Prior knowledge:
A: 12 helices, C: about 30% helix
Amino acid sequence: MTRYILIKILRSFLTLWIVVSAVFFVLRASGDPLMSVFSLGTPEATLDVFRVKWGIDKSIFEQYIIYIGDIFRGDFGTSFFDGRQAWDIVMERLPKTLLLGGTTFVVSIIAGVALGAIAALKRGTMWDRGIMTAAVASFSMPSYFMALLLILLFSLKLRWLPTAGASTWAHLVLPAATLGLTLSGSIARFTRSAMLEVLRQSYMRTAQAKGAPKRRQIVWHALPNAAIPTVTVIGFQLGWLIGGSVVIETVFAWPGAGRLFITAVGVRDFAVVQLFILMVASTVITANLLVDILYGYLDPRISITGAKK
Amino acid sequence: MSGANMNANQTGSTAGQKQKPRPSFIKRWGLTGEWLVSAAMIYIAIILFIAVFGFLFQPYPHTQQDLFNQLQPPVFMGGTWANILGTDDLGRDVLSRLIKGLQLSVLIGVIGTAIGAVLGSLLGIVAAHFRGWVEEVLMMLVDVQVSLPFIIFALAVLAFVGNSLTILIIVVGIDGWERYARLSRSMVLSANQKDYVLAVRSLGLSNFKIYQRHVLPNIMGTLIVQATINLPGVILLESTLSFLGLGVQPPLTSLGQILGVGRDYLILAPWIAVAPGMVIFFLTLSIAIVGDWLRDRLDPTLQ
Amino acid sequence: MSKTKTSPSITSKTSSPLFEVKDLSVVFDTPDVTLEVVDKVSLKVSAGRTLGLVGESGSGKSVTCLAALGLLAARGRVTSGEVMFNGKDLLKVGEVQMSKLRGCEVAMIFQDPMMSLNPVRTIGWQISEALLLHQNLSRDATYKRALELLDMVGIPNAKTRFGEYPHQFSGGMSQRAMIAMAIACEPKLLIADEPTTALDVTIQAQILELLSDLKKELNMAMILITHDLGVIAEAADDVAVMYAGRVVEEAPVLELFDAPLHHYTQGLLNSLPRVDLKVERLSAIEGAAPPPQEFVQGCRFQLRCGYCDDACTGARPIFSQVSDTRRVACQHPMSAK
């Protein structure tokens, strides 16, 4: 079993390496970064100095080897723009992103699972239709548009909440709500169908025949079974959340790593962009790996290797 | 009800089933699926119509500026009929720009989805056919795709490689290719096990013809359904990219692009952002509803 | 005579019935039409006796018992009747009260034991739950009792099995575990819905024997639902035959096999393969049991019966009480031998 996990981990590293390399080549092959930093009239000599300084005078493959080597030493490059270490720049902004993302994730899971379960239990009623319609609507709406609408309503018209920045707790509400509404919508949708599937199983009837009251049936019999597929889905939503926060941070001027990414991409700052992608990919890959292993723990029918017992 | 019927019921013998009229209050609420699906389909039809024929109704050329008429509100907010949905920061008619933007958004969405579907499905078929290292490579590619949220990848590519319309369409189309690949691969794998394929193959039918005549028709349905699931996502992706400034570039316009501009004028002229936003919202919502309905019809056992 | 039967001198008439269903009717609501699935069915069973409820799939036998215990899924609805247990009408008792009775005074086991056990809970947990819900035992006492129960139902290595999951159990073992759960609180009535249908023939006999032993030990009343006449012959004391949602004949088991009165019963018996006769073809009743949408007026068996006439197509056949222990719903019953 441990051998299986080890293989999975190795595969994950391989995937990560491919992602990082692919991104490297795509970005570096795309042209001269100097032009976004320096104006057209700059003399060639100055440009050459910077070429050497930033190591882009060498061939792509050489650059690549150096890059990989540097990573193993913990050096993720220097920002063209800032002059500082890419690592420092990103780390500086990471906590805010974690705050936003973490809060959203936790709240969405609770809300999504609860609403999805309610929708399943009250199938066909107004509750069900209402929750499901809201869920479908929330993921049909572009998140940035929802953000703008919420800003329009709560910041500009009602003046309850601030629009931009991250200085107070009040600032957290709108961005988290925007992301959270969509995330809990998809979680609710999925929880509902998982619950419906579980509720129609024979063992639910057995529980009832045993004399378990309704509440016990739901909490002790239905939910544990429905949780298994739901947990896997939630794990996969993490990637979506990261992608979404990049946009939302921009709309709300939330000073997180996502917004940093947008700015860095805009000025073609290799080091920061590459580091950000490396971190995001690691996070998603780790999350997927954890979900895989967790699935084996949660379902006694499946061994951790994923085989049916 | 006739008297004879009443008696029959009372003695307990039955004349077959009792017909019960559907409770009318459900119909009155209109929350049954049919109503919603029809509304969604009508909306999509309207959008498609505007996308194709809109230029006939466009009140003004979408680039025509009128600097004396900037930021005029729509007609229902105190404006004039000259500009039904108001004007933007350069005095351009919002409705006209909306029509033009819609064209491009729909175009990119549809072409992009088609590209992704064809590409992904082909890769899946190839992997399933050749197995071995080809399949391994594909699985690795899928893993790679899944490990990075697509929008981040798209932003990086568009910013560094360039964001011409072609590149944009290709990038947007690639989103979700792995779903088609996974689907087509697993379906082809199971189809290849089926007896009728083995039989036909042993008769000497060429592989190409086998796929064309026997395998493809069967998997087509599922792939099309997947395309309808993906389409809203593609449209949303393009609009997000354009909103952030990395998608459709001026003088071209798409719904997301207009929204991006509108963001700066949210207080002064909210209609610039709200109008295209609503259009996108209802479009993706309608496609999702119709897609759900299609899926129910094609295979009601799928919940 | 088989070990599973109770002595014939105790007839169901002399001891008052523990459990009695009176004129129960159940319908299913579908979007287009309301289907009558159970039509004024009456049954009764006394302590220590087994009532065999036999009929084809779709005859309404399971639905009757599910409805009696309030276990119908969303679409089923009781439209009339009473279910008397211990002097109370179970249909009028609220769900809260009912859940106290279920598993405690009345228990039910189902057809597919592998699917009827919660896959993510250990067997031990599930049996303990049955105890937990109705008895106030300490943790240790519950554990001990659960092991006892596993022993009682013939599951070896009870201690190991306690911590195992349903997927680790075979079909027969799962059914034993279900039985353990059901008798945990020594119920007065056990309803077994096709308990052996999903099992191998050899295991079938074991399970039936187990049920009979437990019945004797706990002096339970038992209702055994099945489509298999062999099971009926083996395990039932009294039989009720159901067809298309109605009871068509009731009799003690020996009399039923010896001299059936309803043509459907006769048809069923005829279709049993017999070891002692040489036959070219097994006889089967022509046609098929009608689904609820196709029920006709009058006797629902008329289309397949060789003895029907106009009298059969008019009103619903009423019961004629042939003896203290037998009745049949037929206009032209076969003459008793």
